[in-house]
Design brief:
By secondary structure, this protein is α/β, with parallel strands linked by helices. The chain has five helices and six strands, in the order E-E-H-H-E-E-H-E-H-E-H. It is 40% helix and 18% strand. A six-stranded mixed β-sheet has the order 1-6-5-2-4-3, sandwiched between helices. The chain starts with a strand and ends with a helix. It binds adenosine-5'-diphosphate.
Amino acid sequence: MHMGISIATGDITCDGSCAIVNAANSSLMGGGGVDGAIHRAGGRTILDECRLIRSERYPDGLPTGQAVATTAGSMPSRYVIHTVGPIYPGCGTRCDDLLGECYTNSLKVACELGCGSIAFPAISTGIYGFPRERAARVAYKAVCSFLDREKSEIKVIFVFHSAADRQLFEQAVEGV
Ligand code: ADP
């Protein structure tokens, strides 16, 4: 495992990293899965900030692979970075690239905000149906490339909702 990366099991809304990443949808208006959990735990202020981002910067919605930040409301982290994962299998030949961009662009935003740590959920592997092992390899490669290329010291945590998902990730990235 890359030195800048660690793995945890649990609820990402309780993670104390500077930034936590939300697997949002392009509307930024909340949804199910981790998105719903983040909006519930963080409170109304996150939705208000998302509305503002929509009206000022993304009237047609946040494109897949892009990332934007809000505060984290009442959660222990400082920021939520909202990114939109690709929907599988409709993403076709661009699935891996788009998923990789979610990780890279979220890391860029976190670094711009001066964060020393960031926690990621397994983007697109829930409602969006991306195969988990393939997603694990794409996520891990994108994060390693960013850390090495940028010589970044940001600490990255992958947070899995279940021990089984965590184990699957660990096996998938072995030898990557
Ligand atoms: P997507 O629409 O991008 O697939 P989901 O929220 O449906 O997003 O699922 C993404 C991943 O987040 C899934 O692997 C799911 O198990 C996980 N997940 C759901 N809730 C939480 C949570 N509170 N903390 C961490 N991971 C979560």
